[in-house]
Amino acid sequence: MPRTLPHTAREIRLAEVPSGLPGPEHLTVAEVPLPVPGAGEVLVRNRWFQVFPSLRTLIAGGVPGTPFPPLRPGDALFGPAVGEVVTAPFVRGTDDGGLRPGDLVAHFQGWREYAVVPVSAPLGDALPDPAAHLASGATAYAALTRIARLRAGETVLVTGGAGGVGSLTGQIARLLGAARVIGTTGSPAKAERMTAELGYDAVVLRDGSPIGGRLAEAAPGGVDVVVDTVGGEQLQAAVAAARPGARIVVVGTLATQLSAASGGTTAPVELDAFQLIARNITLRGLTGVGDEIHAEWTERFGAWLRSGAVVFPHTRITGIEHAPRALRELFEGRHMGTVVVEV
């Protein structure tokens, strides 16, 4: 029996630009008319969407040259989401991607109950849990396999090892043959889980003092590969610990994005260029993952999840009305892994 659609739906909008970290007081739950799909589009009911730290940068005005536009007061927030198709004006087997009501699709119109999105291929059963399509593992996988080109027996450092990217990076590095995997975090409880569940051999705790000495103790021989999600002082420490020929991949700037004292749109850090030259260290950023790598990752991720070789560390928060609180809790570091709102 066809689903009876509502006339309105809820979405989360930016009410005002904060001077520091955004929280529930800067967002509003708005009731809007149900969107209507046009040619080449389908209407989806969102099932899950990701709460991600880069929203801080977009709310603060964005960074020129990055893929996403800034958010202005009155704009609906957006981000990775998995939605269920509710109206598809096409027939399976044509060039519409084969969508029909009930299929799940991935898109970037999270933070709302219903969305109109371009026709795309259905997700199918590649992953045992559809919400796992919101994992940030493709970034970690690309950093390790395509940029750093991790080799068996090497030592890997992951800054922010308990976050959405970091909580999968340690596991992937282990599966790809790393001999030793080291992570950083500011939470003793997270550190315990990182070594017990997520493939880390050692965790360097941030306690407000410089971490360089503790990192040297955890990796006395230095590190070969760094996946940096933090920047700042931790990136400085990573360069100091790098072996000759080390490869450093910068994928995030949490040090500034999670800081109330920062503007959220710059991430300055002072590095010793002499050390980069003398030890032939490669330093490269990663902003996105192509379709080919993403497909390869999804296939391997699904197999690893089914075999139990990896887990998908995440926190689920039920109800779109609780999404603003989830964003604040993300900035406060309360949750492990990816933060997912179940609509």
TrEMBL record:
It comes from the Bacteria. Transmembrane segments: none annotated. Residues 23-341 form the Enoyl reductase (ER) domain. One of its GO terms (molecular function) is zinc ion binding. CDD domains: PGDH. InterPro entries: ADH-like_C, ADH_N_2, ER, GroES-like_sf, NAD(P)-bd_dom_sf, Quin_OxRdtase/zeta-crystal_CS, Zn-ADH-like_protein. PANTHER family: QUINONE OXIDOREDUCTASE-LIKE PROTEIN 2, SHORT-CHAIN DEHYDROGENASE/REDUCTASE. This is NADP-dependent oxidoreductase.
